[in-house]
From TrEMBL:
SUPFAM superfamilies linked: Aminoacid dehydrogenase-like, N-terminal domain, NAD(P)-binding Rossmann-fold domains
Family: Belongs to the Glu/Leu/Phe/Val dehydrogenases family.
Protein name: Glutamate dehydrogenase
Superkingdom of origin: Bacteria
Pfam families referenced in this protein's UniProt entry, alphabetically: ELFV_dehydrog, ELFV_dehydrog_N
Keyword terms of this UniProt record: Oxidoreductase
Organism of this sequence: Ideonella azotifigens
Phylogenetic placement of the source organism: Bacteria, Pseudomonadati, Pseudomonadota, Betaproteobacteria, Burkholderiales
Keyword Transcription regulation belongs to the record: no
Glutamate/phenylalanine/leucine/valine/L-tryptophan dehydrogenase C-terminal domain mapped to chain residues: 191-421
Length: 424
């Protein structure tokens, strides 16, 4: 048997290395399905594309793009597209695999996929960004589709980019296909509640976890890394529940206020300036000091690999809610467990986004749309029910919530794999 993915050489703390470690930890709880575990370690399909565009100055630039479909046993691929200068194939592979686990954890009829372009979108004009998006969509068009693989927004992508992707795919196929992407603008088949869905899922799972450990959200001190769509939305909901947002960090800086920020001032500041830096209602901190903040709840909602073993030793929170994908490396996970700090893992904590993406996909097929209140009620029920099953599994086997989430999800994935069989 050939070794999996000989062209990728992950380190233990790299995104793909972290994912493989998580799979290894769950194998003992898979019973007879363990014979299929190797399926989880191999993406079904990886596509690398060249994305050439003409810049506004007339020169031609080339960008490298990716789309990875990790597993399609339970349904079409589902996963975002990110634009970032540090995007790599290995990162996209890991993100697609976490999507496979995430969709199964909340029992959605999807597999896992992910895409990305290695680019700093801030260096492109709007027209250049549109040309790059359309070219990328055309290049991956042979493997995406409403019943094949459905992209969505991720880091540095948004509803406008999804609209360009939907339009490009539709032009190439000859008919309007609103269901090819989710996270679209409302008037193009988007869903109410989608923009804040991931942050809402972080809050809902955090609320349930806090109740389990006897942590009162009223007065709870919350620190948030990444104050964008996910972190900012979660912060708003925790503040509405009586929590105090005492620290915030993003790519522009780190700020602190022991009495809590006035989010009525901070969120408009972030919207206007692009980050938390310069906010007058807070003190400036060194970026590394963020991990030493006295808080009850820590929400890493930025990029993967942020909680290292060293940082895990210093974290003072009782509860870590993973708003980002893969923010905690395996050794840090063990350290937090030893220190009795509860981690609600990404593959359930931030699944609110893909859940409402599912609602959007269903609404596009039926051309019948629900209100935001209906969306939120359905989202809350799915998240609460999924977390209860995961917690029961964790209690039964005396394992972490992460391993329990993988156990529940991987069982569903591998049952589907086994029942479908191998073709030919």
């Amino acid at each position: 048997m050939s070794s999996p993915l000989s062209f990728v050489h992950p380190t233990p703390d790299s995104p793909w290395g972290t994912y493989l470690s998580q799979v290894d930890r769950v194998v003992p709880y898979l019973g007879n399905l363990a014979r299929w575990a190797e399926t989880l370690k191999r993406p079904k399909r990886t596509l690398i594309v060249d994305v050439p565009i003409e810049l506004d100055n007339g020169t031609v630039a080339h960008f490298e793009g990716y789309r990875v479909q990790h597993n399609l046993s339970r349904g079409p691929g589902k996963g975002g597209v990110r634009y970032h200068p540090d995007v790599t194939l290995e990162e996209v592979m890991a993100l697609s695999a976490w999507m496979t686990v995430k969709t199964a954890a909340v029992n959605l009829p999807f597999g896992g996929a992910k895409g990305g372009i290695r680019v700093d979108p801030k260096q492109l004009s709007i027209k250049e960004l549109e040309r790059m998006t359309r070219r990328y969509t055309s290049e991956i068009g042979l493997i995406i589709g409403p019943q094949k693989d459905i992209p969505a927004p991720d880091v540095n992508t948004n509803g406008q980019i999804m609209a360009w992707m939907m339009d490009t795919y539709s032009m190439n196929t000859g008919s309007t296909a609103t269901g090819v992407v989710t996270g679209k603008p409302l008037h193009l088949g988007g869903s109410a509640g989608r923009i804040k869905a991931t942050g809402r899922g972080v809050f809902v799972t955090g609320r349930e976890a806090a109740r389990r450990i006897g942590l009162d959200l009223n007065g709870a001190r919350v620190a948030v890394q990444g104050f964008g769509n996910v972190g900012g939305s979660a912060a708003e909901l925790f503040a509405q529940a009586g929590g105090k947002i005492v620290a915030a960090q993003d790519h522009t800086g780190t700020i602190y206020n022991a009495n809590g920020f006035d989010l009525g001032d901070l969120i408009p500041h972030v919207t206007h300036t692009g980050g938390v830096a310069g906010f007058k209602g807070a003190d400036v901190m060194n970026s590394e000091e963020f991990w030493d903040v006295d808080c009850d709840i820590l929400i890493p909602a930025a990029l993967e690999g942020q909680i290292t073993e060293d940082r895990a030793r210093r974290i003072k929170a009782r509860l870590v809610l993973e708003g980002a994908n893969g923010p905690t490396v395996p050794k840090a996970d063990d350290m937090l467990f030893e220190r009795n700090i509860l981690v609600v893992p990404d593959v359930i904590c931030n699944a609110g986004g893909v859940t409402v993406s599912y609602f959007e996909w269903v609404q596009d097929f039926s051309s019948f749309f629900w209100s935001e209140d209906e969306i939120n009620v359905r989202l809350d029920k799915i998240m609460v029910d999924a977390l209860k099953k995961i917690w029961d599994t964790a209690d039964r086997h005396k394992i972490t919530l992460r391993t329990a989430t993988f156990a529940v999800a991987c069982e569903r994935i591998l049952i589907a794999r086994e029942e479908r069989g191998l073709y030919p």
